[in-house]
Amino acid sequence: MNRPGAAYMTIRNTGDEPVTLIGLTTPLAMMPEIHETKTNAEGVSSMSPAGEIVIAPGESIALEPGGLHAMLMRLQEPMTEGDTFPLTLLFDDGGEVTVEVPILGIAARGPED
């Protein structure tokens, strides 16, 4: 139950202005954060909160294994494969976008699996 979950997606900015992703919220987890996996010169990977993420007009960012990803810490309930949960992206202009995220098996790498 204490094992954190992770969420992966691509976020596209279809507008004319840069947008800044500042956070996440979901009823599934008390501490959802965007983390970034970095690998140093010795090949050691570490994760740290990514902070604000600016997405330029017409650009997209991928939340994916090995890079930026959403960590869902302090889960309120187990993640059940086959279910979905709402994840709300919070932007610095006050905008919010809620997506329904499918829960895949632990070995899944993306929607193709």
Coarse shape: globular
Q: Count helical runs.
A: 0
Order of secondary-structure elements = EEEEEEEEEE
Low-pLDDT regions: none
- Could you give the distance between the termini? 24 Å
Number of domains: 1
User: What's the number of extended β-strand segments?
Assistant: 10
The biggest beta sheet is recorded as: 4 strands, antiparallel
Using the coordinates shown, work out and report the CATH topology: Immunoglobulin-like
Radius of gyration, taken over Cα atoms and rounded to an integer in Å: 14 Å
**Could you name the CATH homologous superfamily?**
PCu(A)C copper chaperone
CATH architecture: Sandwich
3D architecture notes:
The model has no long low-confidence stretch (mean pLDDT 89). The strands form three sheets. A four-stranded antiparallel beta sheet has the order 1-8-4-5, with no helix packed on it. Strands 6-3-9-10 form a four-stranded antiparallel beta sheet, with no helix packed on it. Strands 2-7 form a two-stranded antiparallel sheet. Helix content is 0%, strand content 53%. The relative contact order is 0.30. Strand 9 and strand 10 form a beta hairpin. It contains no helices and ten strands.
